[in-house]
Amino acid sequence: MTRATQQLPPSVWKFVFAAFVGGAFGSAARGGCEWGCASIGLPGWTSRIAVNVIGACAIGILFARLCDHDERGVPIGVPHRNRMREHLWGAGFLGGFTTVSGFAWDMASALQSGSFERAAVMFTADALIGIAAVAIGYAIGIARRPSTARSESL
User: What domain range includes position 37?
Assistant: First the structure.
């Protein structure tokens, strides 16, 4: 047995702690973005669109970097060796940075007040541009990923 196979997987509490720490920093980063937008006079919903689109791109990059891929380049999942990074950066930091609840609140507020144009802008930016941002992030992550042959020789 090699040393790598003798090691036990990390405790579930280490994953919980990593997600908690990452989430705290991600939430602080989102708060900083909201404060920055407010300080230049932008409404709060604009900062939430910005963090969701930026976060979607970052999630695409992270997914591409953490997943194993088959010989055709199709992602086959996050291996155990990357689970801690997945919890720290994915569920933690990016989960705290992005905000589905903020998007839902902003949409409900816009619809209730009859601001249908703002609701359409928020939906387009958050949902459609967010999906495109994930795809762009994934493409960036794949392009920056070391080739299999090169990474096996390292």
Answer: 13-153
**Is residue 41 assigned to a domain?**
yes
Residue 85: name the closest of 69, 57, 62 by CA: 62
**Is 8 within a domain?**
no
CB 130 within 8 A of CB 52: yes
- DSSP one-letter code for 75: E
Residue 1 domain-assigned (yes or no): no
| Residue 124 domain-assigned (yes or no) | yes
Closest CA to 50 of 148, 126, 119: 126
pTM: 0.81
Number of structural domains the chain divides into? 1
How many CA atoms does the CB half-sphere of 133 hold within 13 Å?
A: 18
For the segment 56-75, what is each residue's pLDDT rounded down to a tens digit? 999 999 999 999 888 887 88
Q: How many residues would you count in the chain?
A: 154
